[in-house]
Amino acid sequence: MKKYLFLMLLLSSSYFLHAQSLLSTKSGVAKFNATGGLVKIEAVNNQVDCKMLPSNGQIVFALLVKGFRFENQLMEDHFNENYLESTKFPKASFKGYITNIAAVNFTADAVYKVTADGVLTIHGVDQKIQTSGTITIKSGKASLKSDFNVKLADYKIAGSYIGEKIAAEAKIQINCNF
Amino acid sequence: MKKWIIIIGSIVLIVAAIFYYVFIYAAQYKRNVNDEKAIAITAVELVSDYNNNESEANTKYLNKALLVEGFVKEVGQNQEGSTIITIDGANDFSSVFCTLKDVNKNVEVNKKINIKGVCIGFTSDVVITDAFIQSKN
To answer: How many structural domains is chain B composed of?
Structure first.
């Protein structure tokens, strides 16, 4: 009897581990803000693909640049054609690790501060970055948030926008519910 | 005298036209896929094109209006409340992932569907955005 109980326990724990094995979403949100002057230069992307492995903190983001929506269509066209050259470089991604994943208890409701190390690829240029964010656990569901700045010059993003001032650093906000 | 009136008149017209373009037309113009002629394709074909050669598929489909036909695999809502539909691509690893422009509550899993939208590329799925449902059979 004891043997069976142990076996059942083992089986159920392995099932639980399996359920925790990969967190993913295809509809994460990324916001972009490069307002430098009076006119706001903001865009939203609702189709961020994000996968995270809670066991070792590995994390991968991929988004399609043409998925950014501006209020102003001409601004969107400029963003795609002149700045990000999204026909040549359709994707932006981040691949890396959450360095303090051990601090996150995926079964206890709380807000955990995390830091991530990895490579951010925008406009075909790879840059090593370190950024911080939060993982929120609420009734068993995880969500990930991070705000960071991107220096446009680091990614060889240059263009001349007529009329509006574009900031040298763009603010990126990531929000993914798993 | 008459010549001057014509010259000044035309300058005023040109300035007004530029003003209209920069401040009114540019602010209101929005791309609408529904008005565009779409490339008709099945989800299975689209997924296999992207799996075979992503860059070649991008030259064919990227930023174009597509009319994708296939079977609904999953329906859901994204974080902003829009309806998201996954169309089966007959492939365990990738399918066609569509985000509708509006909310649509009448989508059923396993039913055949035609979705029109802009193809913005490939992550692990082919991604379609600003989409509309064309017809259901």
So the answer is: 2
| CATH number for the domain harbouring residue B106 | 2.40.50.140
Question: What is the per-residue pLDDT across A104-150, written as a single tens digit (0 to 9) for each?
Answer: 998 889 999 999 999 999 999 999 999 999 999 998 899 999 999 99
CA–CA min distance B94, chain A (Å): 12
A167 is a domain residue? yes
Q: Supply B33's token pair.
A: 């896929």
Interface-testing mutation among B54, B120, B125, with chain A (most A C-beta atoms within 10 A)? B120
From residue B98, give the alpha-carbon distance in Å to each of A91, B48, B126: 17, 17, 8
Q: What is the DSSP letter of B22?
A: I
Task: Name beta bridge partners: A133.
Answer: A114, A146
DSSP B94: -
Per DSSP, the three-state class of A9 is helix
Residue A10 belongs to a domain: no
- According to the model, what pLDDT value does residue A164 have? 62
CB proximity B55 to A under 8 Å: no
A17 has a pLDDT exceeding 60 = no
C-alpha–C-alpha distance, residues A69 and A110, integer Å: 32
Same domain, B7 and B39: no
- Dihedral angle over CA of B86, A92, B63, A44, nearest 10: 80
Pair B110, B43 in one domain = yes
Give CA–CA dist A91/A72, Å, rounded: 22
CA A100 to chain centre: 17
